[in-house]
Amino acid sequence: MPRSVNAVASRNRRKRLMKLTKGQFGRRSNVWTVAKNSWEKGQTYAYRDRRVKKRNFRALWIQRINAGARQYGMSYSVFMGKIHAKGIDINRKTLADLAMNNPEAFKAIVDALK
Q1: N or C: which end of the chain has fewer CB within 10 A?
Q2: 38 Cβ partners below 8 Å, 6+ apart?
């Protein structure tokens, strides 16, 4: 009895992965084992960096709020401490956007804290 190997499914699986690595440099795009390793590593980086992206944006927002608060003689920690003490419920993303794009509104918040 001949050996059954289901080559159709194997080829389709390889073709799908080779299509995903199309455009990569050198052997990463046309050698099966290298392409597979490259794609798996890329998926690992993608998973990790979706979380790193959130950290980076939070750090950016903090820097922008700090720069905005220092214009009015306050550090970031003092500013955020007063915001929490006053019960002003506004997130860092919005505060950073106000500090950068709408200084009058940010000044109004700072005046409310003083």
Answers
A1: N
A2: 21, 24, 28
